[in-house]
Design brief:
- Five copies of one chain form a homopentamer.
- Chain A is an alpha+beta fold and 359 residues long.
- Chain A has two domains: 288 residues, Beta Polymerase, domain 2 (2-Layer Sandwich); 62 residues, Methane Monooxygenase Hydroxylase, Chain G, domain 1 (Up-down Bundle).
- In chain A, 52% of the residues lie in helices and 16% in strands.
- In chain A, strand 6 and strand 7 form a beta hairpin.
- In chain A, helix 6 runs antiparallel to helix 7.
- The longest helix of chain A has 66 residues.
- The first copy, chain A, starts with a strand and ends with a helix.
- At the B-C interface, helix 6 and helix 8 of B face helix 1, helix 7, helix 8 and helix 9 of C.
Chain lengths: 359, 359, 359, 359, 359
């Protein structure tokens, strides 16, 4: 998984420029992890699960009536993807999209299957970063192939439900399995939103008190993360909407309601992102206003002190002059008089400031 | 009811992540209040009302020709919801939405009923907070089931109208009853808007005079409330629009006009929220401008005092020096001369400032 | 008529909350003025006009072939509205809208008539306020009922045209009469726009010179008025568009062109409001920039004076010290030398500021 | 032609308020210039051109098969427009629009003709103003009537092309002639855009150096002009789009491609206006930032000088006191010591400022 | 190729104003380079490639069944374009667009071909500028004519693929060839985006540390480049969408999927541009905030120093006065006392500032 904030560079897509379309090139983080392929084959009554070493074992399931879920962890071995593509007649362009870990979420209709790409998000508690991983689904009539970038356990709960002979998933087809996988991924979005929400709230709590560059830096960083989350999740809304509009086959009417639920959840996540962004913008405004009020207070103190003492300092300077003929110096109560006059000036100024509401 | 500004966290939805879809999990404020179930059964001529203890009593009404309104106060006992769902054949996904108090407002078409979710708002005079509660409606041909989070009296006026044998509500079906409930809820929105309007107006009145952090804090808090109100009410517009477009069955043409009226009211509430937000933004701008004008005034005074006295103080400093050979000190009218010169300088500067319009 | 800027509160709508829908409640300014009902009955050849006391006189015109225009000034006597509604079979919801002077502009199709609500605007030269009044039209095949809040003379020109046997209005039906009334109201919008335009222009002329809180207050107030004008006029655009799209019956093709003209005018008014708002926003920006330039100028003068004299004052302070052993004091031309040195420092600083372009 | 920036007032439209629709009232700049009517009659083989004095001469061309272009310079003589309207059966509302020089650009379908209104723009090199003039076209099957506000030579190139028997215009009908006229007008828009572009570029070049009110004034003025240009040109896009969508008759398929070209050009002009406005907004931001950086620099110098010398001045003040018992004054190297101490303080402060990166 | 930031002027389009439509005028940078014409003729089995000198050689390929790709480098020799147009029956308006290097990207349907215009972008490493070049395609059934402004090697990879008898391109028709060319151009967009991304990232890294005009200038310049990139690429989205919607003939269903891929890529590029612009705007805000925090710090130091020392300086001034009768001067420990008092005042002020959190 990649840290989401690194995605802004998109260097690898460019590095592919110059190659003919149709040649598979892995675009993503360098990795040497092995590819793991697991197959789960089930219907209402039967269930089989195993890890396969030879890809050809998979092809047998293509025409069986049972639901077959082939999960592939690791897309950097493009030859594996190539063989899968050949075995299941997947369009070369889709294979390209599968190995390009920076593909925009989308749904496409192939000849006998649908192709869905979207993003899994995970919050890394250690680094406090949101990590993003691409998930591609090939949803055929009797088989579903899922491609993940790394070996992960996110779908273990789905696997457990499949293992349970009484669960609803055993009675439905691949369209429901696809829903279950997407639902799991979108459920994870809410976990991310919760973390984001906590951080937004913490920032809002500090809007009126924190006045330093670090605070601005925190807001700026969180805002950037939200922008990238939005860029990642936003297209999924259109993807599910396309599925809902029935523009794509293989989704049965009884499963549609579940997809509508997915749509609802996606919209809710996007709504939250928008309102978080809005909140951050508002915090910046408020923080700036507060800072400016403080600046104002500082300036007022400076002005009051200066305007009171500058004239007084001038006056004492006058009587510090060494002129031979400076009559006031020889008055008996000259000093006392000048002190009184200065007290009067100070009082007058304070009165003026009070009237002007500066004090 | 939850304070609306707490909603920003949405922690509970995330806590559900990991569970299979279809298992009922209550998402909302912890509560131990009992669940109250009341049944009102009526048509133009008959009327019966009672509080039921055993859920099975309700199921009898499912097929009768009379209109049956089952009101359930309390959604935290998920087993009750489960039984209701089984008795009335409600889709499991809808049951999930009913017990998730953070569901986005929406309308869905079930097999023989419509499912509507939206939010009730209440202004708590004691805490000066807007409280939000979820209302879910299952609108069947002859029955309407309403789910509230807490025991409340908001629908007492509707109950009174049902009790009155001459009221229009007795002559119409469940679609009109659903309208009456929604109308009551939207009427309450106007009460909230009135309170908000008063606070906006108070803030507008102070836009030119209040210059402190507390004022900014008030604006910021009210703005946040308006954002959340908007997020709560906005989807209702689409809900009613879907009902109006006739995409959902069970609404008779003669009731459509009433729903159009609801739509009008919702749009009016949203318009008000928008114009309040606009007003607050404008108050912030104006307040900042005014503050900056004052800052300017302060700076000008500082500048005038400083620029007049700093040079004069220098001059008196010159004649305070102790040089043995400082001829002016021995002039007869040296002191008087220097005072005149300084008066001249001060007058020149004041003239300059007047010309520059700084004074 | 109500001052438009008071509308922001909308208290009365809330006060209705709690009543069943369908009961007529007047929402608007308290008034005890009597209700005036005038009837004009005409076709190409005939013309009759009178003020009626008994409402039943009106009902006779319902089925005649001539065009009958019933104008009702005053909507606070809800019983009068009730009787009219009963006599002409008007839907209770529409009657409610008629007596709610804060209804959003809209058009609805009734059984044998169209119902149109919109706002008349009037500029009160004495108070310099825009006043708003609601106009509701029931446009049947052979009759048109108009409801005004107050007794007014705005439609006198329309009446005069009806009285003139050669005018086009006598040859057309109620759809053209409705057009003539709306055209009159929209013509008045242009008068308001002219007044607004004058005020906007005056503000623009002062954008670079006025630097005080009152100016900001003027802008802020005008901006608020424009927001409310926009809120009042904007929905009318959709109203006329609905009429144009032919979604509503009773409008003959030959009258459609006139409605298209209305639409044009409404769009032009809205365009003007938008460009006025834009201008005001721009004036605020410009004014702020100018103010900040001036602040800058003030700061520069302060800095120049301070930075030149503060070091010099220090130097003269040095030679004002009373140390016994302070050799320079005893030099023959110590004073002259130090004066030269200080002149040199001042010159150097002025040169530095000139180079930095601060002077 | 009127200066475009004067248009913001729109006083004359309001002055018409109160008149019945259908009465022709000239709305525009007062003028006493005579009306000039020229007729060009042509087909592929024939060509005739003359200036007519009696309007009746024109009516003869109404039914001929040749293309007849009647150009009318001057719309303030409403009786001429009235007669033309009667002769060619033009709808009274269109006549009203023709003599209202502030009509919003639009296209309408009449009984046997299309009615198109839009604006000609001209850059007056002397006053450096954009001048706007209204052009109305009545495009019938065999005749085209164009109405200009003033006598102008803008269409001379079109006339020359018509005079040339080999030009494409001679082979096409009135729809192509209308295209040629509109194309000429839109070509002129590019000239305006070029002038605007030069001014925008000049302003962008100065964004980092000019720091005065005049610069802000220039930006503000140019921005206002762009807003008005946009308001003038924007509706033309919709006009041509309506023509393209074929909602209006009389445009032959082979001419459609030319209109698509017009649409392209209009969009390009609007794009340019948008990007110019964007540029100006950005210049304002940048200019403000730069100004604020400079202010910062000024403040830093002030602070550094003040904070260094204010404590030093205090110290020399201490030893300028006249206390009888002030031991340091009698030390042998008191003066030298205090000078060293002060040098140390100054050095420390400079070090502190360097560390803080203020110097 | 032209530097993209120079495009803002668009002088040449205006210079064409006054000419009849249909006359070919080259609009672009002055150049005297020769025109190079290369022809590649191929189908699955055959392949021929050569540079032609006489245009007539090309016309022979018009009716052959093989795919013919005629590439023309240089559009400034309008007579060449004219002859091509005549030979292939290209509409004069399209020829005009081809030689106008500032044509907005678009697609048009001709009689037996489609006409596509869009922009190639190239990053010039030497000047660090994005250079823009127009590419026009005439896509007929059996021939494709591409027009480039300059001799370039961007399509060499496409040529290599055509030369390879096993490549997919040899089996498809002109629609796929057009796709291959557009794909190549859009691949280059990603290279530009990478460069932009690097610069945006560099700017983001400096947002909190760089505080000078040059930094603002860099942001401003990059922002301007992004605006122009957006203006250049944005219309391409609509172009490909038009092709996808099947509004234009000659694109076979099996090629559609490839065009959908193009669309995806274009949207991805536009998304990146938007998020880069967003990032820059945010950097400006953040930078301004940081600067303002620093200013605040500077002001605080100034205020603290001033407010502490100004009153003290006044006090020492008092005892520097030369009054004969100034009793404190003669006290034994007057000096020590006054020093203690001043230390007390300073301590009090520091305590006050600490309490106010200014220190």
């Amino acid at each position: 998984m990649k840290n989401i904030t690194n995605k802004i560079k998109e260097p690898s897509v460019a590095s592919k420029s110059g190659l003919p379309p149709g040649r598979l090139v892995y675009i993503g983080k360098e990795t040497t992890a092995p590819v793991r392929i697991t197959v789960i084959d089930y219907d209402a009554d039967n269930f089989a699960e195993r890890e396969v070493k030879d890809l050809k074992e998979c092809f047998a399931f293509k025409e069986t009536d049972t639901v077959t879920w082939i999960n592939i962890d690791g897309i950097h071995h493009t030859d594996v993807i190539d063989k899968i593509g050949a075995g299941f007649n997947i369009h070369p362009l889709f294979l390209e999209d599968i190995v390009n870990s920076q593909q925009r979420p989308k749904v496409e209709e192939g000849k006998r299957y649908n192709f869905i790409v979207f993003k899994m998000l995970d919050y890394n508690d250690a680094t406090k970063n949101v990590e993003v991983e691409q998930l591609s689904l090939i949803v055929g009539k009797n088989y579903l192939i899922s491609f993940q970038e790394n070996i992960g356990d996110i779908f273990d709960t789905v696997r457990n439900r499949v293992r349970n002979p009484d669960s609803r998933i055993r009675k439905y087809g691949t369209d429901y399995l696809a829903y279950a996988l997407m639902d799991k991924v979108i459920d994870n979005y809410f976990v991310i939103m919760e973390k984001m929400g906590e951080r937004v709230e913490e920032i809002e709590d500090n809007a009126f008190t924190k006045q330093d560059t670090k605070f601005i830096r925190d807001i700026s960083y969180l805002r950037r993360e939200l922008v990238l989350l939005r860029k990642t999740i936003w297209p999924l809304r259109e993807v599910i909407n396309t599925l809902l509009r029935g523009e794509v086959k293989e989704i049965k009417p009884e499963t549609l309601l579940f997809y509508r639920d997915l749509y609802d959840h996606t919209v809710q996540v996007i709504d939250s992102i928008e309102s978080y962004r809005d909140s951050l913008a508002s915090v910046l405004d408020v923080n700036f206003s507060v800072q400016s009020f403080r600046m104002n207070d500082v300036m007022k103190v400076l002005t009051i002190i200066s305007t009171i003492f500058i004239p007084l300092t001038f006056i004492v300077g006058v009587y510090g002059m060494n002129f031979e003929n400076l009559p006031e110096l020889h008055w008996k109560y000259g000093y006392q008089l000048i002190m009184l006059i200065m007290a009067g000036i100070a009082a007058g100024m304070i009165y003026y400031f009070k009237k002007k509401k500066w004090m």
